[in-house]
Fold this protein.
Amino acid sequence: MKRYDTVVLGLGAMGSAALYQLAKRGRSVLGIDQFSPPHTLGSSHGDTRITRLAIGEGQHYTPLVMRSHEIWREIERETGSNLLTVTGGLIISSRAKTSVLHVQDFFATTVAAAGRYGIAHEILDARAIRQRFPQFNIRDDEIGYYEYEAGFVRPEACIGAQLQLAKKYGAEVRTDEKALGFDASGDGVIVTTNEGKYDAGRLILCAGAWLPSLIGKKYARSFAIRRQTLFWFAPKDSAAPFLPGNFPIYIWELQGRKQAIYGFPAVDGDNGGVKVATQQYEMTTTPDAVDRTVSEKEAAAMYDYIAPYLPGLSSKRVKAVACLYTVTPDAEFVIDFHPESPRVIIASPCSGHGFKHSAAIGEALAELATEGKTRFDLGPCRIGRFSD
């Protein structure tokens, strides 16, 4: 067998980034995916993902997203792709909020991160939000954090561009090939697929919702797979108020509701609709059993949920898709060496807020695979915390 420096298993957000970064370093690297990415069966589809620099899930994430923005601009220059669009971002909350987004102190941590890293922002009261963004039906006791450099990335384009560059720099890519398992030893890792076996010095597992089936029951119990639904609703009148430049990306910790809502401008103009979603953490599934269709009943329920807050949207569903979150108990990432083998790196940086960091995480994974360490602070992402 040919021996590779590294095999990357799974070529979605994190895997494509890791493959690109390793190939750019001149490493002998093989990427394997059971589908043909970018695809609509995992966690990296749906046209857009929010990106914001001040991270409410933890200040330690901010250097990752700041570096990701730099990398995406580098890739745009090299490929001509359109990956990152800055629209400004608004986070709305209040003392009376009942919905929680990932962590309890999301809003306060966001503001603290902005102060620590010098991220340009404003704190807006309800009157200021209404003046600037009348599209939101704001309560008098709600406040907003507005970040100038927030916006969105296009996940399918990001994955495609990084795979393109990975191949340019010499990476081998095998798609439509399913991994069956791996065997790690002191000398390396043998990866077995339905097509054959591959020998590598290291293995990076970026398998998303399929990760639990590869790492063994002892470690799989720390990951839950959650089905999510994303909706695009048509504006009642003109799309102009919702176009980029007039409408920001937003996250809204609601009062009297269990789930926060988040959304985007009408990024594709008059005919694309306005994307909005909540996050569901109650029901678990598997990537093989999940219902990938979205019913009219689900769309009606979502519209009823968001209509009081976004009165300019109609109930006309333009589009809806389902995707998957791979969630840890504390909503932190897992980026760490496998507890039973330093030859295997587990990369599950997700829990619903991973894509914005993915370009830099690819760089971190390349550093771990080649040097055994990374310049990024990944201490909170160790897998051993679940057994402490």
Remarks:
- The chain has two domains: 3-45+155-222+330-387, 88-153+224-327.
- The chain has a mean pLDDT of 97.
- The longest strand covers residues 313-327.
- The domain at 3-45+155-222+330-387 is CATH 3.50.50.60 (FAD/NAD(P)-binding domain).
